[in-house]
Amino acid sequence: MATIPSAVGKKRELSVVGKKLDLVDKLYQRSILPSVMKVARGERLSAPLVVDLDPTSFCDLSCPECISANILNDGQIERDRIEQLAEELAGSTVKAVILIGGGEPLMHKSVGKIIATLAGAGIRVGLVTNGTLIHRYIEDIAEHLSWTRVSMDAATARTHRIFRPSGRLQSVFPIIVENMRALAKKKKGTLGYSFLLMKRELPNGEITTSNYGELLAAGKLAKDIGCDYFEVKAAFDEGHFVLPASPQQTEELREQSRLLAQLEDDGFRVLRSSTFRSILDGKERIQPKEYARCLTAELRTTMTPSGVYVCPYHRGNAQAKIGDIRKEAFLDMWKRADSSIVDPRRQCQFHCARHDTNLELAKLVQVDFDEDQLVDDFDLFI
Ligand SMILES: C[S@@+](CC[C@H](N)C(=O)[O-])C[C@H]1O[C@@H](n2cnc3c(N)ncnc32)[C@H](O)[C@@H]1O
Ligand code: SF4
């Protein structure tokens, strides 16, 4: 038998929330590994394990830095079709669905029904939301969702309005905070507060606006609300390259990150995304890749109103489109889909959260596993 790669047998001491970003560890779960091994050998799956699903491209906020700005407010998956799609997913081997956007998922009128259908079939459901409409679906969310992550990017209404403006006269920040407090009290899954580091600067590099200074205060607010975790991420430019921080900003962020760590306890974790770590570690903006095929694209897919794409980074990119869920049944679409369409050496030179997963998948081709080397399922959102 070949050598067992990195993740097996590694000491596991973090809570499930703490392991949320350990994407490589997640491959070795009992019900995941058989599919992972097939993909590592170059075989196709009858369905991906995880689906990112954008029910709609409509959004009630108009964030200037939104990575999906150029695909927003351009239709939704019609109600009949998405309710049928939820049934199709429920009848498939998909293990987890993330309701997300391009768009605000809670703006789709069928979202309560979608959640009930998926959860009723035992599929794990996660939600990425701007938080303004949680109150409309709070019972469904509290009862059925494995996790809810609210994109906040601020600790105050003033900064929230700058980076996440709404068309309303009154600030939506207090509404979102109240929604989160209410959800924190009744949720069965976990609740996260997400903070995307953003700044605006003049061509000479002078910073005009930034939310960096609110990072620690946002972490404290997250804990006070009753969140299970606070996630810090770095913003991308339109090409998905991490926006760099100056040496002085990096130093300030390191200090805030250190102080954030002091907030952690058994019920509250601070998660540092791979993009945030790339800033803290002073990594290059480019992440070169030597593999011609992204194997993760066979394990996960991204379904949106404008098409199905290999991953969220390539959402809306015609060169990475592998189907159209409005026109085809889910399994027919997947059977025809070519998940190898993207060449990461050329098309994914930015920091990709799945890079380590892809490197691990490449190592797995020659490996055999004994049952007792696998770990029990702890998080199916691989
Ligand atoms: C585009 S939003 C759509 C879902 C929902 N409306 C929301 O606001 O969370 C999905 C995710 O993209 C992230 N995002 C938005 N703009 C980004 C950027 N420029 N760089 C990196 N991530 C970004 C947000 O933080 C959020 O987690
Ligand atoms: S390697 Fe490329 S195709 Fe694969 S998940 Fe990353 S960005 Fe997407």
Average of pLDDT: 93
Biggest sheet strand order reads 9-8-5-4-3-2-1-10-11-12
- Major β-sheet profile: 10 strands, mixed
Residues in β-strands, percent: 5-15%
SS content category: alpha/beta
Please mark out the parts with pLDDT under 50 across 5 or more consecutive residues, or reply none: 1-14
- CATH topology term: TIM Barrel
Distance between the termini: 26 Å
Query: What do we call the CATH homologous superfamily?
Result: Aldolase class I
Share of helical residues: 25-40%
Write down the secondary-structure element order.
HHEHEHEHEHHEEEHEHEHHEEEHHH
Strand tally: 12
Global shape: globular
Question: In the CATH classification, which architecture applies?
Answer: Alpha-Beta Barrel
Q: Count the helices. How many?
A: 14
Count of individual domains: 1
Query: Which cofactor or ligand species appear?
Result: S-adenosylmethionine, iron/sulfur cluster
- Radius of gyration using CA atoms only: 20 Å
